[in-house]
Every structure is written in structure tokens, then in C-alpha cells.
Design a protein that fits this description.
This protein is α+β, with helices and mostly antiparallel strands and 972 residues long. Strands 12, 15, 16, 28, 29, 30, 31, 36, 37, 38 and 39 form an 11-stranded mixed sheet that branches. Strands 18, 20, 21, 23, 25, 26 and 27 form a 7-stranded antiparallel sheet that branches. The chain has a 5-stranded antiparallel sheet with strand order 5-4-8-2-11. β48 and β49 form a beta hairpin. α5 packs across α15. The chain is globular, with a radius of gyration of 30 Å.
Length: 972
């Protein structure tokens, strides 16, 4: 080997690490108050405009703007849009966003303008916060402006209430009536007549929430307008729709169970497809039969009705809207009972097989009667006890005629329309674009983006635009409803000649559809874009090779990470938009190699630790209003911490989080069977739901896969304890892991089949041997080395399709991580590399621009995916390409010593740059036709390299190294 000598300092913590996060701190002198408007706090959603004029007598040398809000803000300085924030806080405190505004401030009068927003409903990706805004501007490091009684406020009356829920991740579908929008409110020259001081004020020091800095990655605001016109055409309602709106009844009579009654006429006995869309608990009865319900549940034996109210606004159970409606000849009585709170959006009904004119819905079963519904309520009967024999004849009835009122759920209206794409010329893809009533256009941004949509347009007073932000396009239209998520916002245009609308809440999207539902003339779109935060990682990695498929896999992974890294590692920007532990572990591991995001991963780990309950339980996702306990995800948090320490060498973080590990394992010891000392019947013991993977896995009793992960977590904890010198604890943990492995082998190993059973329950093993269980048995350390080949031969084959037992409909890139990790660890490196290339390469062939939630390479190529098309857990190839194909992985914590173990069986050459906590490593290698491997490894910090090469390659390999690199023998 040809190597250059280098003096190397071992990774003992003395060397300075590279930091690529913003290492700023809150001002030493914090002033100001939390401010808001009291009347807005009473709504389900708060919208408040704020502004503050101030005068500067000289241009400041520095200007730092600090902003926090519960739960979202959009900030402007002198009319310039700066961005949105803040990041949700795990603790429920208030995260503070920082802006350098020195380049915007001028001598003379300046203005800070902020839109504040809050949603008082539970969300998957945030913690509920009290409404409030805090701002402080420091000029020359001295406080100059802060929130107090001198600010002016204006309620967001232009935003309609009583809206349907958008998704679990967001609040409600936005409907902005621009006839009441205070245009110019963020500009310096604006008349503030009618604006008032805040009447809710609380000193920062006295507030229950504390200001905090998450120190997340630096970001810049990007205007992503690189879109193509995908479709343009017309749309027209072709399917029948009716709806129920309770209007002001709950305001006058109070919340409770309200009932709507109507009669449908049918010319004969038949069955028809129907859909019911509602965010609240309901019971649907047809001809005195209960046919569908949602979120009802049951009452306790001693029920206090006032304390047994079910959850509304999409916070409880929301079932699939489909049903088959059985109608008989003549009049059919439809009764819809719904638990209604103030602000409820009611319900909408879609009949795909009925044309609009054929839907005859009358308040009485008489041909000459009035159309619509009869509304009654509230009942004394709770929704849990509603049944077909309801007697509400004596209750006052209110008529509701949906034909005379706008649809409360525009998504359902758009679902009732037929969209017909037409031909368009390439010139029309450039602004401006004109739309007449009944016309629409779909823009394609080429990949998933996360941010706030923005439209610039002109129209006439009363024109209505529906704006759909979606990740899928089907039959010529962007999907306005998918997997329980409503994607439509609505704009009612005012008399203003030219205006800009920006969506309040950020969301994930690839497609932007604009439909002109009402237009007196022509609506002209002058611009369309997505305002998104693009995170800066100055120490980015790269990968290129002699195989273009591998290069494409790397690029798709980068795009997926860019969409999912939003101050933390989201599961999917268009789905739950929250951070799941195992998903985040995979994403952060890939992000080390792609962006050098070590500190961001450490923050994510610490977030889960800070969410730990007093029992020791760690939630599966955070931050979130929902506590979701999945024991396998909690255990994987320990594995994630082990991986993070190996890659980062962050000893301070390890020492800080090790008590969290101990409390978590103490919880699992408490949950374990006292005699067997393994995990048995965890759901019955209050241990949450065992996920493991999508698909059919038997999860009763002692679950093999879960105990395998328990074993793996114990071994990971032992390794971590060993790293900081707690040898006795490490040995005890290893013994516990060995015990779990031994007991599970005795209970669930089936020697005659050469596989593990999924579980052991009621004294016998399951008769199901899923492939996930057996992969996890290897991954977790339950399987013995002598059984590896037996297991692998039952599950996999040498060539395509590689997987023999994977379920087509639930095959996914999440579990492929465990397959690849196990295969690479066992030395089946060439096979694992081919599987990686085939699985993810096939997804690209199928059209993936970002990684999908589910994918079956052997599935129907024409089938339209019905799941998330940008899922973070699919990015593991980015890490495997660096660690296994390029062949660089850490041998000591923090990348001070690495293994070099390339995979020339997969590609003839590789060029790779790997970010590390101390700098970066660059590796290039190629395999000559003669079979000689020629490599070059350089770094910008002292590095030890341990080559791990097969004897055939090592005999003739030549490794050139840079001045900072030393080559060590493998036994060192």
C-alpha cells in the first residue's frame, strides 16, 4: 500500500468540532410583553394583524429581530416578507425565531408587521399553546422595540370561521374573504384607522411559557416558482352533493347533540355509493337503521353527561367516509345525529352515482314539500345513546336549505366535479395566466416542497378561487381530499386591483391547482410560488459512482430529506408532519452523510428525552399534542442514541441522556413478565401498541420482534455505558440481553421450519412466521449465528425479486432498512447492495421524485398510489451508499478512526464526500479491469483509516492518502 505519513491526535474531546448550526443566544436584556386580542382568543382559530412603527435616527450597525408566537407568525419589516415560524416546542414553552434585519432598516420611520395565528385543536406535529405574540428588536445590541401597549392590532375578520378540519397536522381549511382583508397593512404608508392596542398583555417574566432557543439549523426563505403547467382545462359538477350546516344554533342553544332529518326519494330498490364527511362524532340512520357512525364510543356505567362529551373537530376517531346506502322504492327517511360544538362545520354528503338534478331531498315525504333538512336540538340524549327510535317531534325545528348557501366544505364540492384537461401551448406556462369561471390549472413543482403557497392575481369583486395544495394528481386534477386530509383553501376576491395571497399554515405539496369556481370576467394569475424555508448545511456531502441508478437514488434521497427536515425530522410533510423516533433515526443517519446534520440529530434525540414521562415512557412521536406509546419505537430511541454517539462522538450529549436511557429501561423491566423477564402482553400492561412494521404480524403475548428490539436496546445501552466507563452496568445489561435472547429462542424458535414464530401466547407459539419477525430476530440478536443461513434462505433469494415473503400491499422502504442493516452486518454485502439498487431504483422507474410510504417493485405499474409520496423513512440508501458502497464508516466515535471497506461488486468506481463532526472525508476509488483497486482518501483533519478488504483485493490494492490521513492495520 502507498500511504503518506500523518501525525494524528486521537478523538479525546480536545479537538474543536465543526459547528454548522446557529450558535446565537437570546438577548441578555429581555423586555416586553405577550400581547393579543381577547375577542380572538375565544375562537377555534385566532387571526390577528400586528404592527409597530418606530423611528431610527441613524442606521444601526446591527439589528436582531426576535419573534415568538403561539402557534405561528408571518413577519414583515418595511414591507419585506421575512418568513414564518417558530418551530413547535416539545416542552410547551415558546420557541424564538431569529432574523438579521440590519439590511432592511433605514434612518427614519420603519415598521414591523406580523400576522399571528393560533389553532385551539390538538395537532400531531405541535403542542397546543396559548395565543400570544412576543417581539424584540435589538439595534447595536441594545433593545429598541418590543411588544407592549404601543403596538396596534386588528382582528383577522377576513378569515371565515366554521371551517372543516384540514388534517391532524394542521388546523382548519382556510377561507379568506379578501373583501375584508386590510391590504397594505404591512407597508409603511398605511392608514391604521380602526386598529387598536392589544387588550391582552402579560409580562414575559410572569408568563407560564418561557422563551427558549432550539438552535436549529440556519435557513433562508426561498421562493420556489420553478413549476410547469401539468394540466389546464374545465370542471363542472357532475355528482350530487348535499350538506348540513348548524349555523348559529350552537351559539344560541349551546353545544350538544343536534339532529337533521330529510327524506330522499328513490324510483326503485337499489344500493348506491355514498360518502359522509364530518369532523365530529355522528350517527347516520336510514329508514330507522343505524348504518354508520364515527367517534361515538361508549358511556361509563355511571355517566355524567356533561363530562362525557366526545372529541370534536377531528381530534377523536375519524372513520373512512365511504358507505353503501341501501334505498327502497319511495321515500327514505334519513336521520343524521351529530355532537356539535360551537364552530362545527357540520357534515357533507357526496353521491357519486347520482347526478345533481336527480337528488330529491325534502323536509317531509311529500312531493310538494320544501327541499332541504329539518334541524332539531340539542337533545338531552348523548351521542353515545342515539338510536333509531329517537322522538324529537316536540322539539323546535329549523329549516336548512343547502342549495341557498355556499358549501361549507369546498373539498366535497370539488370531489363532485368532473375535471377535463384540455390542450394548452407552452407559452401559456408563463405568467400571466387567465382563468374564466369553470376553468382550472395545475402547476407541478417537480418534487415535494414544504411551505406556504403564494398567489398573485387580479379579479373582480365576489370571484371565488379554490386553491388545492396536493402531493398527487389523478384524472387530470390535484387531489383535494386524500387519506382523511383536506387540501383546499378558498379565496373570495375583493375589489382590489392587484393582490397577493399567502397560505397561513405551511404544508407539504408537489402540485398547486387553482380553480375558478366563480368569475364575473377573467381571473388573471400573475405569479404562483411556494415560500419555503431552505436549511443551510455548509458541510454537505456528495456521492457519484459508475452506476447512474445509484446516483439517482442518492439524488432522490436528498430531495426527500430537504422536504422532511423542517427544524426536525418529519415523517411526511403532507401527512402527520411530526417526528417519529425510528423514522427520525433513519433520517438523521442519512442526514449525517448528506448534510453533516449532527447537531440537528442531537437536538432531535434530546427532544424525545425531554418528552419522557415520570414513568419512564418515551412517546413514539414528538412534539405532538398526542401521546403515542409504541414500545418498539421507544426501544429504537436507545439504538438511535448509540448510532448517534458512534457517528458524532458527542460525549456531553451522551452523559446528559444516559439517565433517560436508565429510566426507560427501568420502565421495560417493570412491564416485563416477572418470571420470564421478557416483554409479554404489553398492551394489557399499559405498554402501548407494538408496531414493528406494516402488514400481518401476530402481536399477542410475547412478541418475538418486540423482544428482539428489546435485546438490541439492552446491548446498545451496554455499549453506551462501556463508552463512559460504567463497566458493571454494561455487563448487567449484556446479561439481561442474553437472557431475553435465550428465553425467546426457547419459546419461538421452530427448528423443523428453521424460522421464528411471531409470538408465544397462552402456552404455545404462533403458527405464523412473518419475514419481519425473522429479520428482527437477526437484527436484535435473538437468532444464533448457526441459524442465520436457514432464516435467510427461507426469506430471500439471490436475484430478483430478492424477497420471497414480503407482502405486496404493505411492502415499504421503512422495513428495508432493517433488511439491509442485517444483510450488510452479516457480510452479504453484494446481495444487500443489489437489493438496494433494485428496490429504490424500481421506485424511481415508477416515477418517484421523493421516496414513497409504500412500494412493491412487483406491483402493478399503472396503479395510482394511495399513500404518502414523500416519506422520510425511505432515505436509508444515502447512508448505505456512503458506509457500504463508498466504504467509509466510523471505527471510533466521532469519525476520528474509520473503516475503509468498499463494495466494487456494485459499481466500478465511486467518488464520495462524507461530512464529519470535525470536517470532511473524501474518498475516491476505482476497480481496474485487471482487478486492482486504486483508492485515494483525504480529510481536512487528522484521521486514521483501517482498510477492511477481501484478500483478493487487498493483495494488489493501492491506497493513496492525504497529509492528514494515517493507515492502520486492521488488527490495530
Amino acid at each position: 500500500m502507498d500511504c503518506s505519513p500523518a501525525c494524528l491526535v486521537r478523538g479525546d474531546g480536545a479537538r474543536n468540532k465543526v459547528h454548522y448550526m446557529l450558535n446565537y443566544a437570546l438577548p441578555n436584556d429581555i423586555r416586553g410583553e405577550w400581547i393579543w386580542l381577547s375577542d380572538q382568543q375565544e375562537s377555534l382559530e385566532d387571526f390577528v394583524f400586528f404592527r409597530r412603527d418606530f423611528t431610527l435616527y441613524q442606521t444601526p450597525s446591527s439589528a436582531e429581530l426576535w419573534v415568538s408566537a403561539g402557534c405561528l407568525f408571518h413577519v414583515y419589516v418595511n414591507g419585506r416578507y421575512l418568513g414564518f415560524g417558530p418551530s413547535p416546542c416539545v416542552s410547551g414553552d415558546a420557541d424564538v425565531a431569529y432574523f438579521d434585519v440590519s439590511f432592511l432598516l433605514e434612518t427614519g420611520v420603519n415598521v414591523i408587521a406580523i400576522m399571528g395565528y393560533n389553532a385551539h385543536v390538538s395537532r400531531t406535529g405541535a403542542r397546543r399553546c396559548p395565543s400570544g405574540l412576543w417581539v424584540q428588536l435589538d439595534t447595536g445590541e441594545v433593545p429598541s422595540v418590543w411588544t407592549d401597549g404601543s403596538w396596534l392590532c386588528h382582528p383577522g375578520e377576513c378569515f371565515r370561521s366554521g371551517r372543516p378540519r384540514s388534517s391532524e397536522a394542521r388546523g382548519f381549511c382556510e377561507k379568506a374573504d379578501l373583501r375584508h382583508y386590510p391590504f397594505g397593512w404591512n407597508e409603511l404608508e398605511f392608514e391604521t384607522v380602526g386598529w387598536c392596542p392589544p387588550n391582552v398583555r402579560q409580562a414575559v417574566a410572569d408568563a407560564p411559557v418561557k422563551l427558549c432557543l432550539s438552535h436549529r439549523a440556519e435557513w433562508v426563505l426561498n421562493s420556489d416558482n420553478s413549476s410547469n403547467v401539468l394540466f389546464r382545462g374545465g370542471f363542472k359538477q357532475q355528482r350530487a352533493v348535499t350538506n348540513i350546516s348548524w349555523g348559529g344554533l350552537p351559539d344560541m342553544r349551546g353545544p350538544g347533540v343536534y339532529v337533521a332529518e330529510t327524506f330522499l326519494y328513490s324510483a326503485g330498490d337499489w344500493e348506491t355509493e355514498a360518502y359522509v364527511f364530518s369532523d365530529d362524532p355522528y350517527v347516520l340512520m336510514v329508514n330507522d337503521e343505524r348504518v354508520k357512525e364515527q367517534g361515538v364510543g361508549s358511556l361509563p356505567p355511571k355517566a355524567d353527561f356533561s363530562r362525557c362529551r366526545p372529541l370534536c373537530f377531528g381530534q377523536g376517531e375519524v372513520v373512512s367516509p365511504e358507505l353503501v346506502l341501501v334505498l327502497r322504492r319511495g321515500w327514505n327517511r334519513i336521520v343524521f345525529a351529530q355532537h356539535v360544538e360551537v364552530g362545527s362545520a357540520g357534515a357533507s354528503f357526496l353521491f357519486p352515482e347520482i347526478v345533481p338534478d336527480d337528488l330529491l331531498s325534502l323536509r317531509k315525504p311529500e312531493q310538494a314539500n320544501l327541499r332541504g333538512w329539518s334541524l332539531s336540538g340539542p337533545l338531552r340524549t348523548p351521542i353515545q345513546l342515539v338510536c333509531p327510535n329517537l322522538l324529537f317531534g316536540d322539539l323546535p325545528k329549523s329549516p336548512f336549505v343547502p342549495f341557498f348557501r355556499p358549501a361549507p366544505d369546498e373539498n366535497v364540492y370539488l370531489m363532485s366535479c368532473e375535471f377535463t384537461p384540455g390542450e394548452y401551448s407552452p407559452e401559456e406556462t408563463e405568467a400571466p395566466v387567465q382563468l374564466e369561471e369553470g376553468q382550472y390549472i395545475v402547476f407541478d413543482f417537480g418534487t415535494m416542497v414544504y411551505g406556504c403557497p403564494e398567489l398573485e392575481f387580479t379579479g373582480e369583486d365576489g370571484d371565488i378561487l379554490d386553491v388545492v395544495c396536493a402531493e398527487q394528481v389523478v384524472a387530470g386534477q390535484a387531489l383535494c381530499w386524500a387519506e382523511g386530509r383536506r387540501n383546499t383553501d378558498t379565496l373570495v376576491l375583493g375589489p382590489t386591483d392587484h393582490c397577493v395571497w399567502r397560505g397561513i399554515v405551511p404544508r407539504g405539496m408537489r402540485y398547486l391547482m387553482v380553480a375558478a369556481r366563480r368569475a364575473a370576467g377573467k381571473v388573471v394569475l400573475h405569479g404562483w410560488q411556494v415560500r419555503r424555508r431552505k436549511y443551510r448545511f455548509d458541510n454537505a456531502g456528495s456521492f457519484t459512482s459508475g452506476d447512474p441508478v445509484l446516483d439517482d437514488i442518492w439524488a432522490v434521497g436528498v430531495r426527500t430529506l430537504e422536504a422532511n427536515i423542517q427544524g426536525r425530522f418529519l415523517d411526511a410533510p403532507a401527512k402527520e408532519a411530526t417526528q417519529y423516533a425510528t423514522d427520525a433515526m433513519i433520517e438523521s443517519w442519512a442526514a449525517y452523510h448528506v448534510f453533516g446534520a449532527y447537531e440537528l440529530a442531537g437536538l432531535a434525540l434530546a427532544e424525545f428525552a425531554s418528552a419522557q414521562l415520570e414513568t419512564g415512557a418515551i412517546p413514539a412521536c414528538c412534539p405532538s399534542d398526542y401521546f403515542v406509546e409504541m414500545p418498539d419505537y421507544s426501544l429504537m430511541w436507545i439504538v438511535w442514541l448509540q448510532r448517534h454517539y458512534l457517528y458524532s462522538g458527542d460525549r456531553k450529549l451522551l452523559e446528559r441522556l444516559l439517565p433517560t436511557v436508565e429510566r426507560l429501561l427501568a420502565r421495560f423491566r417493570q412491564l416485563a413478565d416477572p418470571e420470564l423477564r421478557i416483554l409479554v402482553d404489553l398492551p394489557l400492561r399499559g405498554g402501548g401498541y407494538c408496531f414493528l412494521d406494516h402488514g400481518d404480524i401476530h402481536r399477542e403475548g410475547a412478541v418475538t420482534g418486540l423482544n428482539a428490539l428489546y435485546c438490541r436496546a439492552l446491548l446498545a445501552a451496554a455499549w453506551l455505558c462501556e463508552q463512559i466507563g460504567i463497566e458493571r452496568k454494561a455487563e448487567a445489561l449484556r446479561q439481561s440481553a442474553a437472557h431475553v435472547a435465550r428465553v425467546m429462542r426457547e419459546l419461538t424458535w421452530l427448528p423443523e421450519q428453521g424460522l421464528f414464530a411471531d409470538c408465544w401466547t397462552e402456552g404455545e407459539h404462533s403458527d405464523y412466521t412473518s419475514w419481519q419477525t425473522n429479520v428482527l430476530a437477526i437484527y436484535g440478536g435473538i437468532a444464533r449465528p448457526e441459524d442465520y443461513e436457514s432464516i435467510l434462505s427461507h426469506l430471500f433469494c439471490e436475484g430478483e425479486p430478492y424477497e420471497l415473503l414480503a407482502h405486496a400491499e404493505t411492502n415499504n422502504p421503512f422495513f428495508q432498512f432493517f433488511v439491509l442493516e442485517s444483510a450488510f452486518a452479516l457480510g452479504h454485502r453484494a446481495w444487500a447492495g443489489q437489493l438496494l439498487r433494485w428496490y429504490w431504483g424500481s421506485m424511481i422507474e415508477r416515477g418517484a421524485a421523493t421516496w414513497w410510504e409504500f412500494f412493491d417493485p412487483n406491483g402493478n405499474p399503472n396503479e395510482v398510489p394511495s399513500h404518502s409520496l414523500c416519506h422520510g423513512y425511505g432515505v436509508s440508501p444515502n447512508a448505505f451508499l456512503c458506509a457500504e458502497v463508498a466504504g467509509i464508516r466510523p471505527a471510533l466515535p466521532g469519525f476520528t478512526r474509520v473503516y475503509f471497506n468498499p463494495l466494487p461488486e456494485l459499481t466500478p468506481w465511486v467518488k464520495c464526500r462524507i461530512p464529519t463532526p470535525y470536517g470532511h472525508i473524501e474518498v475516491e476509488w476505482r476497480l481496474e479491469e485487471s482487478g486492482t483497486l486504486i483508492a485515494r482518501i483525504t480529510s481536512n483533519y487528522p484521521l486514521e483509516v483501517v482498510p477492511v478488504l477481501s484478500p483478493a483485493i487487498a493483495a494488489t490494492a493501492t491506497i493513496h492518502v492525504g497529509d492528514e490521513v494515517s493507515i492502520l492495520a486492521e488488527e490495530d
